[in-house]
Amino acid sequence: MVRLYRFLSSVRLFLVLLTLLIVWSMVATIVPQGLEEGAYVQRYGAGGATLLGVLGLTSFFGSVLLAALLGLMELNLILCTVPRLIRRVRGDLHRRAELRRSPLDRLETYAADIIHLGLIIVLAGGVLLSVTREQQEVLVPTGTSVTLAPDGIEVTVVDSREVRNENGTVIDWTIDLLVDGTPVTLAINDPVEVAGFRFHFFHWGQEPMITLADAGGDSYSMHIGEGLRSPDGRAFVLAGVSASGEALFQIIDEAGRTVGDWELSPGERLGQLQYVSAGREVLNGFTASRSTGRIPVTVGLGLIIVGMGIYGIKMWRKYG
Asked: Rounded to two decimals, what is the model's pTM?
């Protein structure tokens, strides 16, 4: 039991966990999150898609792996900080000389402990963010309305545009949304919070698409990375559209392996649907997320700032 305690409270364990967290997070910022399995197979091949899934890198920021890393770091900091803090408080209360010191002098001795407590609360908030985080990714044309589960909040993409400077260079993209009746504008690195959700811009661009129609005449749009599954379990995923209008599909088996390609020309059929035409369409992408972990993260960051401020005053008083 003593060995286990020493291991869980060691600085070495914290550094290993921190390194793993940094490396995994860096990779996860490169790998697109939350896509369909076929999209990962198309990008990285069957083997790469399987490896990313095993490592939890296709949905890292809401995964059990992230929660486990943060939870172990949380436990490590608690075992390091809390027993030491209790011993220090008890010792100070029993030392009369300590009680005669000014409140600021006594507070300065706890600067590191305040920072550690802030880190503990931040990590607890990180665990909550990972476990309770709900994120929905939306990629739709202008004019489309979607409903966010489970609250049934309706979001409509009203408009989207490129933002150019005086030289005509594109410097930003914006998306105008109507969220539960409230107009909001999203831009790159400028999230908006409304109706309990945090909205992030992540995509704007003209993408190849094809139009399919069923026997009743109803039309359906299909974009790159989307597809249909046949009765035998194979998936036909749209991989591209040629200049002459042929749609190229990748055929993926039930194990996620690419087993062939297939070209479809206008007028031909894909299952029960007929390929009508090809074109390009502006797609607007945003995420809507929420979690109960933001409050403890904010409180923890506040404690860290206070602790660093106290430590700064201590250094200033000591060295002038």
From this structure: 0.55
